[in-house]
Amino acid sequence: MVIILFIIPGCDGDTIKPPPPEPEIFADISGYDSLHYEAVVMVIINKPGHQLQFSSYSDISSKHHSMVISIFYLDTNLKAGTFNFMRDFISGKEYAVGSFIVGKGKDEKVFLSDSGTVIISELNGLTINGSFNFFGSDKSKTEHINVQNGILKIK
Questions:
Q1: Number of domains, the chain
Q2: HEC string of the chain?
Q3: Nearest C-alpha neighbor of 113 from the set 71, 78, 65, 80
Q4: Angstrom distance (rounded) from CA 152 to CA 94
Q5: Which of 25, 138, 149, 154 has the most beta carbons within 10 angstroms of its beta carbon?
Q6: Closest CA to 94 of 136, 137, 50
Q7: How far apart, in whole angstroms, are the C-alpha atoms of residue 38 and residue 26?
Q8: Per the domain annotation, does 14 fall within a domain?
Q9: Is 19 a residue whose pLDDT tops 70?
Q10: In a domain, 108, yes or no
């Protein structure tokens, strides 16, 4: 009797990790902090509140950075178009609010949009393309951030 043993390579505990997700938001930041920002976006749709939010974060040069862009619209469904950045919630108007945050916890510095625009050029399901720029300041309005060349590419 002949016994043939087949040696099947076993798993040694190593797994092949999937590649990291591709960035979906890009911007050049200057002012309080200067960097090129790229991150994956979490899209939040709040239909009853007529709000579309893009939330992202990235650790760049050993610092935590995050950006949130919220678009508030009046119609039952958001349509492609241009939305002006404001600082605070305004009832009965279409607009956007942007924030850029540097650091975490007690070292966190929050910059809210004072002016700028976000343009949604394509909106097809969860495929969203657009561009944005905004100028923001901290709570005391003594420190500033300029977010330029912003691109949204969400598929």
A1: 1
A2: CCCCCCCCCCCCCCCCCCCCCCCCEEEEEEECCCEEEEECEEEEEECCCCEEEEEEEEEECCEEEEEEEEEECCCCCCCCEEEEEECCCCCCCCEEEEEEEECCHHHCEEEEEEEEEEEEEEEECCEEEEEEEEEEECCCCCCEEEEEEEEEEEC
A3: 71
A4: 19
A5: 25
A6: 50
A7: 5
A8: no
A9: yes
A10: yes
The CA distance from 99 to 150, in Å, is: 13
In a domain, 81, yes or no: yes
Could you tell me which residue, 88 or 66, shows the higher pLDDT? 66
- Residue 10 falls within a domain, yes or no? no
Q: What is the extent of the structural domain holding 45? A: 25-154
Average pLDDT in the 133-141 region? 96
Please report which confidence band the pLDDT of residue 88 belongs to, taking 50, 70 and 90 as the band edges: confident
